[in-house]
Write a structure and sequence with these properties.
The protein is mostly helical. Helices cover 50% and strands 2% of the residues. Strands 1-2 form a two-stranded antiparallel ribbon.
């Protein structure tokens, strides 16, 4: 729809409302079996369309929606859906099929970045990854739509780039503060991957989130330890008396002959 729209500016202005409705479906567990797969497929299609329309303002608008969905206060009660929002924010930079969208829950730290697994140089997704990691100030003239490029004023591209870095860092900062251990570790790993590409990236997180990231990176967060199982209750067996259940282990009770206390 975005590629065919006569005025893409009008189309992208409706993105927040569209995404709000889609995430309401995803946040409803009752609709999980029927609609979640279709909704997620539709969101992927929207992401791919927005990136490939070569309209940077639409991409910024979409990234803002996903970053906002990472906030606990934004109304998503399901921690998995807040994690899904972070995955979608990552898709804008890493593409839809990147291995850096989900991580092994058993591993505490992020994998080492392999350059051949990043979006190819010159591609539309790579533009946003390079912008987020400060290797590019903003969208290139190649990425801008022709009508936008003609009206582009000096510094506009850099402003878009700076805004995108802020959106990504805000989304990650919110995810790092998430009460869900899985979500915060996921955010740590995404931040670490971006930091591997640009060591200064974590400086854009808010102060508390950056402190938590530094503690995690230095080994301050311990691996998940399963709670010890409680000692099982003793087994019971049926007695010879109908309706009476006795402990499986036998207990010996010694009863002595009654006696009067001395002096009485």
């Amino acid at each position: 729809c975005f590629s065919k729209a006569s005025n893409v500016n009008v189309a992208y202005e409706h993105l927040p409302m569209i995404m709000d409705n889609l995430f309401k479906i995803l946040d409803n567990i009752a609709w999980q079996k029927l609609n979640h797969g279709n909704v997620m497929f539709g969101i992927d299609e929207i992401i791919d369309m927005v990136i490939n329309t070569q309209h940077p303002v639409a991409a910024i608008q979409l990234s803002k929606v996903f970053a906002a969905k990472c906030q606990l206060e934004n109304g998503l009660n399901n921690a998995d859906m807040r994690n899904y929002a972070l995955q979608n924010l990552s898709k804008i930079m890493f593409s839809l099929k990147s291995p850096y969208l989900t991580f092994d829950l058993k591993k505490l730290y992020a994998p080492k970045v392999e350059l051949d697994k990043l979006p190819p140089q010159g591609g539309f997704y790579r533009e946003w990854l390079d912008i987020a990691t400060l290797h590019q100030n903003g969208p290139s003239a190649k990425y801008m739509r022709e009508e936008d490029a003609k009206e582009n004023i000096p510094g506009q591209s850099a402003e878009i780039g700076l805004e995108f870095v802020g959106v990504v860092s805000n989304g990650l900062s919110e995810a790092i503060m998430d009460p869900s251990r899985r979500n915060k570790i996921h955010a740590f790993k995404v931040t670490d991957i971006l930091n591997q590409l640009q060591p200064e990236f974590s400086n854009h997180l808010d102060a508390e989130s950056r402190n938590r990231y530094d503690r995690w990176k230095s080994g301050g967060m311990k691996p998940w330890v399963n709670v010890k199982k409680e000692k099982p209750l003793p087994k019971w067996k049926k007695s010879d008396v109908p309706g009476v259940i006795m402990p499986a282990s036998e207990t010996t009770i010694n009863v002595s002959k009654p006696f009067w206390p001395a002096g009485m």
